[in-house]
Amino acid sequence: MSVASLLKKNKGEGFMDYVSGMVASAKDLPKVELVPISVPLQRRLQTLACYFYFSMWLESHLLLAFLATKATLWPFLLLYFTFIYFDFQYEKGGRWSDWYRGHIVWTWLADYFPAKIIKECDLDSSKKHMFVCHPHGIFAAGALLAFGCEGLNISKLFPGIRTRILTLNANFYFPIYRELLLYLGACGPSKESINSIFEQGDSVAVVVGGAQESLLALPHTADLILANRKGFVAMAIKNGASLVPVYSFGENELFDQIVPEPDSPVSKFQKILKKFTGFTLPVYYGRCAFAYNYGLMPRRSPLNIVIGPPVDTVRTAKPSAEQVDQIHTQYMDALKDLYERNKEKYSVGGVIPELRFH
C-alpha cells in the first residue's frame, strides 16, 4: 500500500483520529528497499549528480548559513546582498557559462533516468524559436536536461541555436542558488526578459503549465494547463518566433504525489503560496540515495523528450486576439499530433494516458 493510499484510508473525524489511524496502518507500509552496497561506481555518480541538482536550493542555503557564521566574511556578504538587490541580469538575457553547462555532472544526471532527446525535424538557425515544454511535472526535469544544460548535447542537435530556459523570478532572489541558475543561462519569464533574449538572437524554452500544472503531475496522466494560456503565443508573434512543441514522456512518473482534499488546510496553503509567490509545494515523494521507495529524489524512470516540428508565426507588433487564438489553436493541434505519434512508443509502464488540456 502506498503512502497516498494510507492517507486516503485514514481520514478520521479529527486530528487524533487521523494520527491514530496512520499509526495503526503503519504496518501496511512497504518495507524500506535499501540500495545494495555493490552498486557500480557509474550509477553512484549518477545518483550523486541527481542529489546535487534536486537539493541545489538547500545546499546553497546551507553554504550561506555556514559563511554567515564567520564574522570576517560579513562585509563580503553585505556587498553580495547589495549586488543581488541591484542585479537584474536575469531580465537582460542572463549569464552563460559554457564550462558549467557542459560539466560532466549534467551528463551523469541525464544518464540517471536515463533521458534522451528525440528530434523530429531540423530547425532553421537563422530564425527565432520558442520551445514550449510539457508537462511541468514536479521539477520540470525534462526541460532542464534538454535546454538548461548540455547533458543531452542540445547544441549539437540544433547547431547555431542557443536557448535560454525561463524560470520564476523568485528563484533569482535566493543567494548563491541564483548564480547557479544564471550560469546555466536561465532567465526570468517577464516580457522584458523574453524580448531581451530574442533581441540578442537567442531562443527561449518555457514550461507554460507552471506551478498550477505541477499539482496535476500524477503518474500515468497527461493533464496540461494550456487551454487558456495564451501569453506565450502573443510573445512569440510579437518577436516573430516559431513555437516548437516539446513533450517529456515519463516526466509525471518520476514522483508520486499526495493530492489533498480541495478544502483541506494543505490545499488552501498551496493556493495561497502560489498566489503570492508564483510557485507552490506539491506533496510528493520518490526515492533517496539509500532507498528505492522513500525520499524526495526522482525515481530512475526513462525520460524521452520529443521535440516536434515548429508552428511558424509572422512578426506582428500588436497581434489581435483573433491572431493569437488562431496560432494557439494551431499549436495545441501540433502538440496533440506529437503526443499521438509518440505515446505508444514512449509512455511509461504500459499505460497510455489521454492527453487533456485544462
Explain the overall architecture.
With 358 residues, the protein is α/β, with parallel strands linked by helices. The protein is 42% helix and 12% strand. The chain has a six-stranded mixed β-sheet, with helices on both faces. A two-stranded parallel sheet has the order 5-10. It has a two-stranded antiparallel sheet with strand order 7-8. The chain is globular, with a radius of gyration of 21 Å.
Brief synopsis:
The protein is α/β, with parallel strands linked by helices. The chain contains 15 helices and ten strands.
Our measurement of the CA-to-CA distance between the termini, rounded to an integer number of angstroms, reads: 30 Å
Kindly estimate the percentage of residues that lie in beta strands according to DSSP: 5-15%
CA-based shape: globular
Q: Number of helix segments?
A: 15
Portion in helices: 40-55%
Rg estimate, integer Å = 21 Å
Low-confidence stretches: 22-26
The average pLDDT value, as a whole number, equals: 89
Across the major sheet, the strand order is 1-9-6-2-4-3
Element order: H for helix, E for strand? HHHHHHHEEHHEHHEHEHEEHEEHE
Give the class from helix and strand content and strand pairing.
alpha/beta
Number of strands: 10
Q: How many strands, which pairing sense, and closed or not: the largest β-sheet?
A: 6 strands, mixed
Protein name: Diacylglycerol O-acyltransferase 1
Organism: Entomophthora muscae
EC number: 2.3.1.22
Enzyme class: transferase
What are its keywords?
six-stranded mixed beta sheet; 15 helices; 10 strands
Secondary structure: elements and pairs:
Blueprint: H1 3-9, H2 15-24, H3 41-54, H4 56-68, H5 74-86, H6 98-101, H7 104-112, E1 115-119, E2 129-134, H8 141-147, H9 154-157, E3 163-165, H10 177-182, H11 191-199, E4 203-206, H12 210-214, E5 222-224, H13 231-239, E6 242-249, E7 256-258, H14 265-277, E8 283-285, E9 303-307, H15 321-346, E10 355-357
Parallel strand pairs: 1-9, 2-4, 2-6, 3-4, 5-10
Antiparallel strand pairs: 6-9, 7-8
Helix pairs in contact: 3-7
